[in-house]
Amino acid sequence: MSRSRACERLREGFVGLSEAKVPFRRLHCHDDIEIGVNEHHPVTAIFGGQRLMLPPNHLVVFWAARPHGPIETTPGGWAYGIHIPFPWILQWRLSPALVKPLLAGRVVLDPPDRRPAADLELVKNWVRLMRQDSVEAKRVVLLEVEARLRRLAIDLASRESAEQTAAASQPPSTGAVGRFEKMATLIARHFHEPLLIGDIAEAVRMKPQAAMRLFRQSSGMTIHECLMRHRVSNAQWLLATTDADINDVAAMSGFGSSARFYVWFQKVAGQSPAAYRRTLGI
Question: Looking at residue 89, what is its pLDDT?
């Protein structure tokens, strides 16, 4: 079975999760940044075709658009995590020391250098706050997540050697992987602009059909779907953080028509833009 077919799309968005770690029957993917910690036991996972060992009590950060999932776990293992829509992360304008490895498809680990359980308790508290279903509690989580990622970026920038950068795995530097990274980066940075599949393919010197095939094999979704999901995620950010008119939100997120915006927002978020804004209490 190809990776694209073996990748189960999970619902995206700003959510907190706590779950027993059991092997996935299918890999999954979602266009968010995932931030989490494994408790008690290590987890062996597949990420973008690479086999990783994720130790307990380490903060784990990665862009979850690549097919991934645990394949070897220990009974009693548990994990806690937060999903943040990728465009929200981009809005924070974090240091390239963190953003570049995430865009390159790496899994970033921050070892528990000073307080072994500090990140575990921090992420656990984020999950508890998310369960309160309170707008103010979610704002607190967002502020704390941003602060933690900024500290992580500072740590990454200060480490002197490749071993100390805490990248659990880096995809092989083949031409194919490099081209996927370039396409993903182009979409992530320019999703709000008019962007055609032909333009993306030309940027990596590939024919459109070949580029679309590579992108689907590497991420589990089409170029068009990735582009639309970036735009919807940005619209969610604007709906959550501004009082802009919904039609203006659509335009600022790169949608050329309100009709297309409503169709894709409903498909990704499971509700209309107005209903989404109401759920946030805005």
Answer: 81
Task: Answer yes or no: CATH 1.10.10.60 is held by domain 175-279.
Answer: yes
Report the predicted TM-score, pTM, of the whole model to 2 decimal places. Answer: 0.60
> Is domain 3-169 given the CATH code 3.90.1210.10 in the classification?
no
pLDDT value of residue 176: 45
Cα–chain-centroid distance for residue 129?
20
Rounded to whole angstroms, the Cα distance separating 53 from 15 reads 24
Tokens of 183: 């396409």
How do the domains of the chain map onto residue ranges? Answer: 3-169, 175-279
Mean pLDDT by 10 residues, the chain (282 residues): 40 75 65 88 76 88 78 82 83 85 82 72 93 88 94 83 45 54 81 90 93 81 85 81 90 93 88 83 56
**Which residues does 129 contact at the CB level (< 8 Å), separation at least 6?**
16, 137, 138, 140, 141
- Tell me how far apart the alpha carbons of residues 147 and 1 are, in angstroms, rounded to a whole number: 41
Report whether 36 contacts 45 (CB < 8 A).
Answer: no
Residues contacting 101, CB < 8 A, separation 6+: 108, 156, 165, 167, 170
